[in-house]
Amino acid sequence: MNTPLADRLRPESLDDIVGQRELLAPGRPLRKIIESGNIPNLIFYGPSGVGKTTLASYIARITNRSFKKLNGTTASTADIKDIVSSLNTFEGLNGVLLYLDEIQYLNKKQQQTLLEFIENGSITLIASTTENPYFYIYNAILSRSTVFEFRPVEPEEVKRAIDRAIRVLSEEKGKAIDFSDEAKAHICSACGGDVRKSLNAVELCVLAGDEGEFIKVDEELAKSLTQRSGARYDRDGDSHYDVISAYQKSMRGSDVDAALFYLARLVEAGDLISACRRLVVCACEDVGLAYPQIIPIVKSCVDIAMQVGFPEARIPLADAVIMVCLAPKSNSGVNAISAAQEDVRKGLGQVVPRQLQNVHADGEERDVKGQHYLYPHSYPNHWIEQQYLPDDLVGHTYYDFGDNKTEQAYKAYWERIKKTD
Q: What is the pTM of this model?
């Protein structure tokens, strides 16, 4: 079986690991923990290909404990019990170091199976996850572990791994490799900080490179093999929610360029639904009453995008994103409904005022017969003062006029109609 290049390049020391300098540089906490040899339970959290498995494998090599490895996507409860049973054998005399990759795929019961042995120290757990551990990992496991966040690897660090990969591939093939600087730079930037993906791209380029006295890899070849690798996006994972969150927050913050960038990531990922949904929400929530006409305009752009689909959908979506960014902003509407919902949740306002109720017969117990609803259109300016809120909410204010031109015009109009200051 052909071992992946990333596995053939496993580092011999902590300094060989690329990236994660904030964790592994001399004097940093995680490095000091590893060098102490007293390994606690660890959880490595971060995107794929940034060194979580690499570091766990290195730790396993320097410990004198029996090393076991499971993957949460395939591990069963029986697999976990097999590891637990090995604790009573000669193999588990010094305890077991268990590397559990993709722990988020284990259910709560499977994670609980490990709890007793993690707590008494007979199993040292190193777990990795691409999802937020505070959402996906059982709290009792979290409380007995230290979480370290791994980040995408910087391009200059990725280049260290690429150069090493080229040297190893040249030795394996017994032939020089002319890998252009432009090709390296493209892979460094296009693979989105994913070292494993970068190494795979290097290996593919070498396999597909022109061969003669040496293997030649140029920028064009690198681009053809890595052209769509840079979009780190998982529709069910943290990356998905990070992108759509940044997309809406950039529109709310009126940063056209940032909003268009995140829209482009959604477009490249083919996620039309998220691009449309967050756009409509932002028009209502963040522009709202400052420019209410934008809501049907954005809805129209979204309808066009849904009708034509990709690739053309990007055009009406871009138009709408730019409009939302440049429009005046007001969150008075969302604040108002949130305040009203809070009173509903408190159980207030259960009894609708009599004059607003649907017409129905009065009981004999009612002293004042009739509904006595005042029809506003029968009065000057189509308004007449009467009680609309339930008795226990009279005087509650949910809506405050925003400081934009449109809402201030509304305010002036109603102050004039109601003859208030």
A: 0.58
Q: How many helices (H) and strands (E) does the chain have?
A: 19, 8
Q: What is the Cα–Cα distance from 79 to 104, expressed in whole angstroms? A: 16
CB-CB contact of 326 with 254 (8 Å):
yes
- Please give the helix or strand (H or E) that residue 211 lies within, else none: strand 210-211
**How confident is residue 1, by pLDDT bands cut at 50, 70 and 90?**
very low
Location of structure tokens 């959880």:
43
SS (H, E, C) 190-203: HCCCCHHHHHHHHH
Secondary structure (H, E, C), 297-328: HHHHHHHHHHHHCCCCCHHHHHHHHHHHHHCC
| Beta-strand pair 123-129/210-211 | unpaired
Q: What is the C-alpha to C-alpha distance for residues 189 and 192, in angstroms, rounded to an integer?
A: 6
Question: Pick from 192, 199, 272: which is nearest to 232 by CA?
Answer: 192
For the chain, how are helix, strand and coil distributed in percent, rounded to 5?
55, 10, 35
Place of tokens 């604790």: 87
- DSSP E strands in 26-163: the ranges are 42-45, 66-71, 96-101, 123-129, 146-149
**Could you give the C-alpha distances from 154 to 50, 150, 200, in angstroms and in order?**
10, 12, 17
Tens of pLDDT along 315-359?
A: 999 999 999 999 999 999 999 999 999 999 989 988 888 888 876
Per-residue model confidence as pLDDT tens digits over 193-208 = 788 888 888 988 988 8
The amino acid occupying position 66 is: S
H-run or E-run covering 41: none
Which two structure tokens, joined as six digits, stand for 351? 């009894």
